Amino acid sequence: MEQVKIGIIGGTGVYRLPGVQDLEKRSVATPYGKVTLNVGTLGGKRVAFLTRHGENHSISPGRINYRANIWAMKMAGVKQLVATACSGSLNPAFPAGSYVMLGQFIEFTKNRAASFYDTDGTNPIKIAHVDVTYPYCNRLGQVVVDAGAALGFKIHTGATYCCCEGPRFETAAEIKMLRLLGGDLVAQTNYPEVVLAREAEICYAAMGIVSNMAAGIADEHVSAVELTSVMKGLFDNVQAILAKTVEMMDERDECWCQTALAESFL
Ligand SMILES: [Zn+2]
Fold this sequence. Notes:
CATH superfamily: Nucleoside phosphorylase domain
Bound molecules: zinc ion
Order of helices and strands: EEEEHEEHEHEHEH
Strand order of the largest sheet: 5-8-7-6-9
């Protein structure tokens, strides 16, 4: 089967990529369930695209089949993966409408299958302790930043992303705590996706898109309706940044991420 080297995962508000041509749906069977990838041509290159929450935003953050999604990308041949992450902001330097590359994460999720190497000893899987000192691929992230710059968009870098369980939004006290811990953005779905990509030895970069200020920072309630409306307004720009990123990516590029498991087994 044709190998597709570039993957894109669209988060909240990014349910389709209008620029993709020759689109075909490819069903991929994984050990974790079936995944439908949209395979097509974007920016002159073949890409595999999937929507994290399903095409109708029908899967809640804790129930997304993260392992199936990343496994399907790996099986398709993906070596470099760019994702979007609609986020609330804890940092006034990143107001609504900002684009911010994720640099670190802190996670507060509760019950998610977060590893391909999670075993109780009764199967032949060996435990892997993968390194996530720097969980996002800086090399690939820089391509996204450069693509934004080429289109006239400032894309900030180095955000610490806090991943909460959801689907409820956070309390003002939780947001205050996350800010004290050094968080910049908050949302509910980048973990364990980022870690699974590292385990799958795929270069992974995620662009945070700020939809609103988080609870207690803005002087109002956090509204999913408002979040949707902001994301709709930004969609054309996000689509353009993704297309330009793919155009500027080199399918042959590789880095440490693609051998991340080499020193992960005891
Ligand atoms: Zn990399």
